Amino acid sequence: MPEVVDPRGDGTILARLRGVEMAFPTRGWLGAEPPVKILQNIDLEIRAGESLALVGESGGGKSTLARLLVGLLKATAGSVEVMGYDLSRLHRNQRLPLYRQLQMVFQDPSGSLDERWRGRALLSEMRRLHGLDAEDETLIRLLTEVGLSADTLERFPHQLSGGQRQRLALARALAVEPRLLIADEPVSALDLSTQAHILRLLRQLQAHRNLTLVLVSHDLETVAACCDRVAVMYLGRIVEVLPAGHLRRARHPYSRALLDSLPSSRPSERRLRQAIVGEAPSFRQPPPGCPFQPRCGVAEARCRQQVPVLEADADGNRLACHYPLSS
Ligand SMILES: Nc1ncnc2c1ncn2[C@@H]1O[C@H](COP(=O)(O)OP(=O)(O)OP(=O)(O)O)[C@@H](O)[C@H]1O
Ligand SMILES: [Mg+2]
């Protein structure tokens, strides 16, 4: 099986999305309607070895973006390059070796764990598919790495707790030694203490295996503890990218409003709580100008006329706002 080699060589950027758009076909009462654009103008670079969080309210397009990154969806415009390969232009014999490098775990591990298979079959099938050995010794090493005991090889998923199932889903994703792991709300179905264990495990695995991790979450506390950088999404667009350690200094009014979920004593943040009232607008009828303007406490006339462009500052942070807050 051919190995995937990054043709660009330097290996510092693992994935690069340029002008990515994702539109889904829709049907109304009267039949087919124009496709609805869910993602628009997505420009994003994912650095090799980093952990990047995708955050934002429900329905903002985080999972859609995650699925594009592992090739489960094909962008309707723009390009998704991973390890130097454009996912929409892969040669037939490049697909399997490249997809091996891109693994995903989901909120509900049942989606990736066939209930009829024991742990051994679930892990060995993944390895065999990619031409790797599936000796018990190897599988037990994998289980140990995710904090599961060797007897998990004999168990069916329904014989495991929610946390153990998520660990097994992680072991299955790691079984093929991927470079990029995308975890889509991996802990939101678990109780609080299990959440903390799984997040710590993810962080450890990322460091030990030199993995690039993309963590989808709407919990900013999780993200601040687990990730290097954060990309904030709103209505299918990236509106701000900044280091996780600087989250409290976010400049986009939407990012700041999201910080409400963190306990805060800062009066400026408390004031912004009023700015995020109301439902997110519909993708079908997005508001004119900035998508956040109808809910923004600091919007001006220009915000209703022009969509702000996602621009980079000298530190490599990115922001799409006409009137950013001071940091
Ligand atoms: N296959 C599809 N066909 C049509 N619309 C879709 C499809 N997949 C997603 N959508 C729509 O795209 C929008 C964004 O969905 P997505 O699942 O990416 O959001 P999300 O940010 O992951 O939300 P959540 O936090 O609730 O998981 C939603 O309005 C959803 O209905
Ligand atoms: Mg989602």
Quick description:
With 327 residues, the chain is of the alpha/beta class. It has helices at 62-69, 92-100, 119-129, 136-145, 162-174, 192-209, 220-226, 253-258, 267-272, 301-305; strands at 13-28, 31-47, 51-55, 77-82, 85-86, 102-105, 180-184, 212-217, 229-234, 237-243, 311-312, 318-319. It has a domain at 13-100 and 218-319: Rossmann fold (3-Layer(aba) Sandwich), CATH 3.40.50.300.
Broad shape: globular
The H-and-E topology, N to C, reads as EEEHEEHEHHHEHEHEEHHHEE
Instruction: Give a quick account of the main beta sheet: strands, pairing sense, barrel closure.
Output: 8 strands, mixed
- Helix tally? 10
Tell me the CATH superfamily of the domain at 13-100 and 218-319: P-loop containing nucleotide triphosphate hydrolases
The kinds of small molecule bound in this structure are:
adenosine-5'-triphosphate, magnesium ion
CATH top level label of the domain at 13-100 and 218-319:
Alpha Beta
N/C terminus separation: 50 Å
Total strand count, please? 12
The low-confidence parts are 267-275
Question: Can you tell me about this structure?
Answer:
With 327 residues, the protein is α/β, with parallel strands linked by helices. The protein has a domain at 13-100 and 218-319: P-loop containing nucleotide triphosphate hydrolases (Rossmann fold). 28% of the residues lie in helices and 24% in strands. It has helices at residues 62-69, 92-100, 119-129, 136-145, 162-174, 192-209, 220-226, 253-258, 267-272, 301-305, and strands spanning 13-28, 31-47, 51-55, 77-82, 85-86, 102-105, 180-184, 212-217, 229-234, 237-243, 311-312, 318-319. The strands form 2 sheets. An 8-stranded mixed β-sheet has the order 6-7-8-3-9-10-12-11, with helices on both faces. A hairpin with a 2-residue loop joins β1 and β2 (31-47). The radius of gyration is 21 Å and the shape is globular. Residues 267-275 have low confidence and may be disordered. Bound molecules: adenosine-5'-triphosphate and magnesium ion.
